[in-house]
Amino acid sequence: MLEQLRKARREESGFTLIELLIVIVILGVLAGIVIFAVGGITDRGNASACKSDVKTVEVASEAYRAKNGTYAADMPALVTANLLREVHVAGANGYTITYDNTNGNVGATGVTGCP
Question: How far is CA 5 from CA 11, 13, 14, 37, 45, in A?
Fold first, then answer.
């Protein structure tokens, strides 16, 4: 009986500790690659949203000027004139839109790749 147990124990197959550690290291490296890849996608999304918001404020500013002959005093005036739905909250999406009422220039700060 004891001999049968020893024989069965020798014939058992399984993974060694080294094999398991190698698999864990490989999975860790792959997870790190995925995390960095997804981070780049998020940055491009923020830059695209910023550019879109800047363009929307530019169009609203020019529409206000075409209608009233002067640029709006500030972005809330564009909302009052029903040219914008709401004023962008500074820093809410990681960027701030700036508006210059002397010449209607619109800019943004806080996101790489956004004017």
Answer: 10, 14, 17, 51, 62
Q: What tens digit of pLDDT does each residue of 37-76 get?
A: 777 676 677 888 888 888 888 888 889 899 998 888 888 8
Residue with tokens 């363009």: 55
Cα distance between the two ends of the chain? 81
**What's the one-letter identity of residue 97?**
I
Task: Supply the pTM of this predicted model.
Answer: 0.62
What is the DSSP annotation of the chain? -HHHHHHHHHH-----HHHHHHHHHHHHHHHHHHHHHHHHHHHHHHHHHHHHHHHHHHHHHHHHHHHHSS--SSHHHHHHTTS-SSPPPTTTTS-EEEE-TTT--EEEESSTT--
How confident is residue 105, by pLDDT bands cut at 50, 70 and 90? confident
**Are 109 and 96 spatial neighbours (Cβ–Cβ below 8 Å)?**
yes
Model pLDDT, residue 23: 95
